Amino acid sequence: MLQEAIDLRVNPSDETIHLGPLAVRFLLTADNSGGSIAAFELIVPGASRLAAPTHSHDHYEETIYGIDGVLTWTVAGKQIDVGPGQALCIPRGAIHRFDNNGSRDVKALCVITPAAIGPQYFRESAEVIDAAAGGPPDRAKMAEIMRRHGLTPAPPQA
């Protein structure tokens, strides 16, 4: 039986981070879950692409649950549409990215297990994306941030 008091509340993190047109709203972080899970809501406006390079992560799975709209994930070279009520688990080591190919905004829930990544990665990425002022972000800076937070950028496509 748990002896210490637990601060139970809805959305204990509840932090929104803007990465250009995208928004990431953290609901749970490693600090809220003993490191077992991180969860964030992802909002991707219509006709938007992931600004960060295609990447993989070796230390956690990422599960996507579609809430509204359709997000196209490219995982290991295969395109997979994730719409409302659908889930996709991206295994460790799988190279992936996403795009919103439609005109409708997308909302998805992303769950990271274990919680090996959190808001700090997105805060640092937002700085680089915002500094690009709508152009492509500095790939070397993004790659450095990604590596520090346990993501592996994929080599650029020819």
UniProtKB/TrEMBL annotation:
Matching Pfam families: Cupin_2
Domain Cupin type-2: 51-111
Domain of life: Bacteria
PANTHER family given in the database record: PUTATIVE (AFU_ORTHOLOGUE AFUA_8G07350)-RELATED
Protein name per Swiss-Prot or TrEMBL: Cupin domain-containing protein
Source organism: Bradyrhizobium sediminis
